[in-house]
Design brief:
The chain is an all-alpha fold.
């Protein structure tokens, strides 16, 4: 079940929210009378049942694998918590991690490994055809982080399988993240309050995310798919159309994924949870490293905490630090899918992070430079740095979106104007309409922190206002609500009209 579908928006989500709020009110009253943490367990059980239904709707009997993952990791965590011997605990941790990786590896990488092995002379391994369960990368990483945190004594294992299963399977972030650490929601699983302010904030966040997904991502996706469809057919496109297609794909994947993250964060707030931000305007980054501080934050943080630091991080010399970065980003690429192109995309980013680290060390050891303190000088450096980071990201998306290295090469030749333009490529212009132009312009503008700037300016204006402060504040709030409501209704019209509605991260 996809968030941006009529059945989810008009039936599933309203019924689940109303049920959780009604039951939560009774649980809150019971908790106040008894002081018992278990008073909140029925709400968690209801969320768990709703999450299993949500997953079953899209995956059918594949929900059994989700249940198996929950039970396996819950059992491993409890054993780790009871053991005191370091050797025993290390052995159980290794078994838990190996079990999760084998589970993920069979479904996601068995075919890729077999096909890669068959490239060797004399090797002919049958290629297994395994259906990839929805969200397996997200919920496996989330459950594995819980086991590792229990091993590190950073959190205690959940006293209830229901609470732990609710944490792993919670439908807002089950199939597309953000990846949530147990320690960040453990207290709210036991005791939380659903306030009117929190629900209103969550609803506004949800509507904003829905508009990102339906009005922006889905609209620009048409042009991105058209361009890459011609490329996949072995034909080049005009340079102008190639750049439009590349920008459209960059906007599509950003608003598609960040829109889902916004909806997940909003639904979490409406249920009494607070998930961490997953996107922080990555296209206004000033370096590749800054890009990864802003893009899919929960995943980059996961790899930092559970792969990069255990490998030694930056504590074992420059060469080992660079190697660790390359390994982490290669694994990050493979996390997105069993494909050589995803691996190359990860290595591409890893190389630029390594080069930036080397450049920073070289700059630190050289003669001090006289920095320009003028506004123009600072602004120019920011523009140049942002252009560099955008170039790294955009050319990385060429690798990420292309099915083969030949497709990537053809797209690069098209971007540079060196490819032969086919009749099919010229026909793409016929599908380029004003709605897509508006979506591209709005998408590029909103990729920068325009909304936070406006809010900050309004905040300063409200702070300066005296007599009219309350009225102005109410006017601003009402205007924001009216705008989001209009965007939400327009999104519903697009959904009801059966408009193009893909979701990129289902494939990961």
């Amino acid at each position: 079940m996809v968030f941006s579908t009529a059945i989810f928006l008009t039936l599933f989500l309203p019924l689940v929210l109303l049920g959780c709020w009604a039951l939560g009110g009774l649980c809150h009253a019971g908790a106040r009378r008894s002081g018992s943490e278990m008073a909140w367990r029925p709400v968690n059980a209801l969320i768990l049942l709703a999450s299993f239904l949500f997953y079953f709707w899209g995956e059918g009997l594949g929900v059994a694998w989700l249940v198996a993952s929950v039970l396996f990791n819950a059992g491993c965590a409890r054993i780790l918590a009871r053991r005191e011997s370091p050797r025993w605990r290390q052995g159980w941790l290794a078994a838990a991690v190996a079990g999760n990786l084998l589970f993920l590896g069979w479904f996601k990488y068995a075919g890729f490994i077999a096909r890669s092995a068959n490239l060797l002379p004399g090797v002919d391994i049958p290629v297994p055809e395994v259906a990839l369960p929805l969200g397996i990368s997200f919920y496996t990483f989330q459950a594995m982080s819980y086991v590792v945190d229990v091993y590190r004594r950073e959190t205690k294992p959940s006293a209830s399988v229901v609470d732990f299963a609710c944490y792993v399977t919670m439908f807002p972030q089950l199939v597309a993240g953000p990846i949530v650490r147990y320690v960040d929601v453990a207290e709210r699983l036991l005791q939380r309050r659903v306030t009117l302010e929190g629900v209103a904030s969550g609803f506004r966040r949800f509507l904003g995310g829905l508009a990102k997904k339906v009005l922006l991502a889905n609209t620009v996706a048409l042009m991105a798919d058209a361009v890459w469809g011609v490329i996949a057919g072995g034909h080049g496109v005009a340079a102008s159309m190639a750049w439009i297609g590349l920008v459209c794909y960059a906007l599509q994947i950003y608003y598609d994924f960040s829109g889902y993250s916004d909806m997940a964060i909003g639904m979490g707030r409406m249920l009494g949870f607070e998930f961490k931000e997953n996107f922080l305007h990555p296209y206004c980054a000033t370096s590749a490293r800054d890009f990864w501080r802003r893009w899919h934050v929960s995943l980059s943080t996961w790899f930092r905490d559970y792969v990069y630091i255990p490998l030694g991080g930056n504590r074992r010399g420059l060469a080992r630090t660079c190697l660790n970065s390359l390994v982490v980003f290669a694994l990050c690429g493979l996390w997105h899918g069993a494909s050589a192109m995803f691996l190359l995309w990860g290595i591409w980013h890893g190389l630029f992070l390594t080069l930036e680290r080397l450049a920073a060390l070289r700059g630190a050891g050289g003669a001090p430079r006289k920095e320009s303190r003028t506004f123009a000088g600072t602004a120019l450096r920011q523009v140049v740095a942002n252009a560099y980071a955008l170039a790294v990201a955009l050319f990385g998306w060429v690798l990420f979106r292309s099915e083969t290295l030949a497709d990537a090469g053809l797209m690069l030749r098209s971007l540079s104007g060196l490819a032969d333009v086919s009749r099919e490529a010229r026909a793409i212009w016929l599908d380029f309409n004003p709605k897509q132009i508006v979506a591209i312009v709005a998408g590029v503008a909103l990729a920068y922190p325009v909304v936070p700037w406006l809010r900050a300016a309004l905040g300063r204006r409200l702070a300066q206002a005296q007599r009219s402060g309350a009225a102005l504040r109410l006017t601003v709030y009402a205007g924001e609500c009216a705008l989001l409501t209009a965007l939400g209704l327009l999104s519903l019209l697009f959904v009801a009209g059966g408009s193009y509605n893909p979701f990129l991260y289902f494939r990961f």
